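Reviewers of the previous submission asked for a worked example of the structure-prediction workflow described in the proposal, so we include one complete record here. The input consisted solely of the amino acid sequence. No template or homolog information was supplied to the procedure at any stage.
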Amino acid sequence: MIKVTQAEAMGAFTALMEMRGRKMGFQTALSIVKLHKALETNARFQIEEEEKIFREFGKEKGPDGGVDFGEDKEARTKCLEKLQELAKMEVEIEAKPINLQAEENNPDFKISPEELAALEKFIQA
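From that input alone, the workflow returned the following C-alpha cells.
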C-alpha cells in the first residue's frame, strides 16, 4: 500500500499516461502498467467527485474542462474549497513502488523532472 493525497495520485496517473508509449525494459513496463491500473480506479473516483461538486453548485465542466461561475464569487470560492479538500484527501493505493533503476543505462528511456516529481512517492529508492 502506498499512502498519498488524492492530488498526488492524480499527478502520478497523468505522468504514467505520458510514459506508457516509451520504450523500456519488460519489468519496468510491467510495473508501470500495474501502477497505472491501480491508479485508474482512483482517477475515476476523482472525476466523479469533481462532477458532484460542480453539480452541487449548478455547474458543469465546459468543453475546455473549465467551469464558468460568472459573477458568483461566493459559489466559486466554496466550490474551490471543496475541490481543495478533495485534493488533500489521503488515499491508499494498492500497488508496489516501481523500480526505475533498471532503466539507468537504457538510452531509449527518458523521464522528465516533472514526471519524476509526480511519481516520487511511487518509485522504489
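The chain is about 55% helix and 5% strand. We consider this example representative of the routine output the project will generate in years two and three.
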